[in-house]
Amino acid sequence: MLAISPTDRFVVLTGAGVSAESGIPTFRGVGGLWRNYRIEEVASPHAWRRDPRLVWEFYSMRRKVAASAKPNPAHIALANLERLLRERLLLCTQNVDDLHEQAGSKNVLHMHGELFKSRCDTCSRAPFQDRNTYDPPAEIPHCECGGRIRPHICWFGEVPFELDRIFHALEQCTMFMAVGTSGLVEPASPQPNENTQPLNNRILVTLKPRRDHVWPLFR
Ligand SMILES: [Zn+2]
After folding, report:
1. Distance from the CA of 123 to the CA of which of 4, 63, 153, 208 falls in 20 to 30 A?
2. 156-175: per-residue pLDDT in tens?
3. How far apart are CA 110 and CA 15, in angstroms?
4. Ligand 1 center to residue 156 CA distance, Å?
5. What are the start and end residues of each CATH 3.30.1600.10 domain in the chain?
6. How much is the pTM?
7. CA of 152 to the centre of ligand 1 (A)
8. Which CATH architecture has domain 26-68+121-153?
9. Where in the chain is the domain with CATH 3.40.50.1220?
10. Distance, first Cα to last Cα, the chain
11. Which are the catalytic amino acids?
12. Model confidence pLDDT, tens digit, residues 72-118
């Protein structure tokens, strides 16, 4: 049981393992495949330029899968923790589904984008809610500026969102928790010290984290 003081500030990072428990497959990462395409071939700016219909077909499939998924106990526990800590908790997720929001989390930062949002690939129009699917032969919608509407996703080769805010929050936080991120098993994972409490294989809690230790997890 963790003792939380009134001045503690949390940063929580959640990754694909949390969504997987709700039946959302893990595509990102080495060896990820969809219909014999490597994921990099359908989730990159290059793929978008070469074959935007294929890209939308992939994301339409992902929207359909995610649309029927339900939050699991991890999502619900984190929403409860936010209710307790309010603005002293920043939930940063690598997941693009909306299961944290469905569970009741409000302060969620989607560093890899959001599956149910789209944006223009040309102008700076803000991302907007979009639950539509665009399977071929459906036309890819266009923006008023003439640009094409693309998924609001951080693709391979693009910079994750809100890194400044994450960096700042890591500076301020007294507790860091990572749940379901593959980074935990890679060399970049933080070195456990006497303040680290490994709860099980998939949850890591670090007290008084050193930012340079946990920063590599935010990829
Ligand atoms: Zn536009």
Report:
1. 63
2. 999 999 999 998 998 889 98
3. 11
4. 22
5. 26-68+121-153
6. 0.87
7. 13
8. 2-Layer Sandwich (3.30)
9. 1-24+71-112+160-219
10. 29
11. 112
12. 999 999 999 999 999 999 999 999 999 999 999 999 999 999 999 99
Q: Are 11 and 90 in contact (CB under 8 A)?
A: yes
Q: Cα(129)–Cα(125) distance, rounded to whole angstroms?
A: 12
Q: What percent of the chain has pLDDT over 70?
A: 86
Q: Residue 138 C-alpha to ligand 1 middle, in angstroms?
A: 19
**What separation in Å is there between the alpha carbon of 141 and the centre of ligand 1?**
11
Domain 1-24+71-112+160-219 has CATH 3.90.1010.10: no
Among the residues of 34-156, which ranges form H helices? 45-50, 52-67, 73-85, 99-103
Q: Cα(98) to centroid of ligand 1, in Å? A: 25
Place of tokens 């129009």: 125
Distance CA 37, CA 53 (A): 14
